[in-house]
């Protein structure tokens, strides 16, 4: 085993195709349903909001889908992303475990999100689309689509969850630097936003609400399509460059992971790292796969596996997923990218099949883990990524207690340079663990659509 700390793949080893787990699932993914008819969705049903190439990928069961050359050209700005051995963290924890992290914070927008923003912008530009509308929680996705839109000459309109809009002004500034328009959601610009504000004028917003606004804009304007940064199959597909690179880099390190850890909100960065390893597990490998989510929005650990809307305004198709109910309003937290009521259908399906585990942690213990990591490794994690850091540290301390020298690989999906107010609040003792309202969760789950 090498003594190296960083493992860089040459550009020519960058993946040339995305991996589609749908090709290898032992049980097919339940189809999305049309909310009016209850029948499986067809390509024509998605045409008002997505370009044809994206629709084809969303419904594909091909194992490998080629990455277009123009997308590869943009990827080369930061990919292949490094794999790093966290040797200093290992020493700080006194663990015999070997800890590695795939670092996606090296992208121009600072997270894993450009892996799907770039192809989505490309496919829309190829079909003559002029404008894209989208939602964003913490701003990682909005920043990434703004970046991608600037490369392909697209106007981008971003509905940002209001609590994050107010907490993270520099994310807004980054989007505007790339040329996007950033709007606090719920807003008065859409019927769905106005309806929410009428019921609750002080609403902090949620990803479900922001999705409703963005979808409404796309569905009502001929020149606009919708793009999203997580949840759906094509997004998970685009992120698999993470896991495919990691496999080659772990070989360079002369190692292979015993445990994979990634945070989960909508499921995209988890899918990106885990899906290629799940493929190998289906062939007989024995890697444990652990999804980590916030205790305040515990979709995988407390949600119901059922058909539900992906948005609060019920403008989206019905998808079968782990859900807390489309009307559920997670408490405010600094991990805005993880405050989503649902989970990617494919990630949910994987969990149901027993192909991964799930756990949850409160935000203060995640920030404590992030500070431990930063003081050992020098990188300040995004609040969302702090959940993966916490999960990896828990596994490393388990190895210490059991005297096991396992290899742990986690996805550090973004840096925290625009999230320093969260760290300021943490150090001042103002960062609180806000539990979700059990009665509100019960009420939201009681309104799930009845699907035969």
Automatic annotation (TrEMBL):
Iron listed as a keyword: no
Cellular-component GO terms for this entry: cytoplasm
Entry EC number(s)? 4.2.1.20
Domain Tryptophan synthase beta chain-like PALP intervals: 77-414
Question: Required cofactors, per record?
Answer: pyridoxal 5'-phosphate
Species the sequence originates in:
Magnetospirillum gryphiswaldense (strain DSM 6361 / JCM 21280 / NBRC 15271 / MSR-1)
Q: What is the name of the protein in this document?
A: Tryptophan synthase beta chain
The record's GO molecular-function terms, alphabetically, read: L-serine hydro-lyase (adding indole, L-tryptophan-forming) activity; pyridoxal phosphate binding; tryptophan synthase activity
User: In terms of domain of life, where is this protein from?
Assistant: Bacteria
Where N6-(pyridoxal phosphate)lysine occurs, the residues are 113
Q: Please state the gene responsible for encoding this protein.
A: trpB
CDD domains in the cross-refs: Trp-synth_B
Q: Give the family per the record.
A: Belongs to the TrpB family.
Q: Which InterPro entries match?
A: Trp_synth_b-like (IPR006316), Trp_synth_b_CS (IPR006653), Trp_synth_beta (IPR006654), Trp_synth_beta/beta-like (IPR023026), TrpB-like_PALP (IPR001926), TrpB-like_PALP_sf (IPR036052)
Q: Which UniProt keywords apply?
A: Amino-acid biosynthesis, Aromatic amino acid biosynthesis, Lyase, Pyridoxal phosphate, Tryptophan biosynthesis
């Amino acid at each position: 085993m090498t003594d190296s700390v960083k493992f860089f793949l040459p550009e020519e080893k960058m993946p040339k195709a995305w991996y589609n787990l749908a090709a290898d699932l032992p049980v097919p993914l339940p189809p999305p349903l049309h909310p009016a008819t209850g029948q499986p969705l067809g390509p024509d049903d998605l045409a008002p909001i997505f370009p044809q190439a994206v629709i084809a990928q969303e419904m594909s069961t091909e194992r490998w889908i080629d990455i277009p050359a123009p997308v590869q050209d943009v990827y080369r700005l930061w990919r292949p992303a490094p794999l790093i051995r966290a040797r200093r963290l290992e020493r700080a924890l006194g663990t015999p475990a070997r800890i590695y992290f795939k670092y996606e914070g090296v992208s121009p927008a600072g997270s894993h999100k450009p892996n799907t923003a770039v192809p989505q912008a490309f496919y829309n530009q190829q079909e003559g689309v002029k404008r894209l509308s989208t939602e964003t929680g913490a701003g990682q996705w909005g920043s990434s689509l703004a970046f991608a839109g600037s490369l392909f000459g697209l106007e981008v309109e971003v509905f940002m969850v209001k609590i994050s809009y107010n907490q993270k002004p520099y994310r807004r500034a980054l989007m505007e630097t790339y040329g996007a328009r950033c709007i606090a959601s719920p807003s008065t610009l859409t019927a769905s936003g106005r309806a929410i504000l009428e019921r609750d004028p002080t609403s902090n917003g949620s990803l479900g609400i922001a999705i409703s606004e963005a979808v409404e804009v796309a569905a009502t304007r001929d020149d606009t399509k919708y793009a999203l940064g997580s949840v759906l199959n094509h997004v998970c597909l685009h992120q698999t460059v993470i896991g495919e690179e990691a496999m080659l880099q772990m070989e360079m390190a002369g190692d292979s992971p015993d445990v994979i850890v990634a945070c989960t909100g909508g499921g995209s960065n988890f899918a990106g790292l885990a899906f290629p390893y799940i493929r190998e597990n289906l062939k007989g490998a024995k890697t444990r796969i652990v999804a980590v989510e916030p205790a305040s929005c515990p979709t995988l650990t407390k949600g119901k596996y059922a058909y539900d809307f992906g948005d609060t305004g019920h403008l989206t198709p019905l998808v079968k997923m782990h859900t807390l109910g489309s009307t559920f309003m997670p408490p405010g937290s600094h991990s805005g990218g993880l405050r989503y009521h649902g989970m990617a259908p494919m990630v949910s399906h994987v969990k149901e099949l027993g192909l991964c585990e799930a756990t949850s942690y409160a935000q203060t213990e995640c920030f404590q883990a992030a500070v431990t990591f930063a003081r050992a490794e020098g990188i300040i994690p995004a609040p969302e990524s702090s959940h993966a850091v916490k999960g990896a540290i828990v596994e490393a301390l388990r190895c210490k207690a059991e005297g096991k020298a396992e290899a742990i690989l986690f996805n550090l999906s973004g840096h925290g340079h625009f999230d320093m107010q969260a760290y300021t609040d943490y150090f001042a003792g103002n960062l609180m663990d806000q539990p979700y309202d059990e009665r509100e969760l019960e009420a939201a789950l009681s309104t799930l659509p009845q699907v035969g």
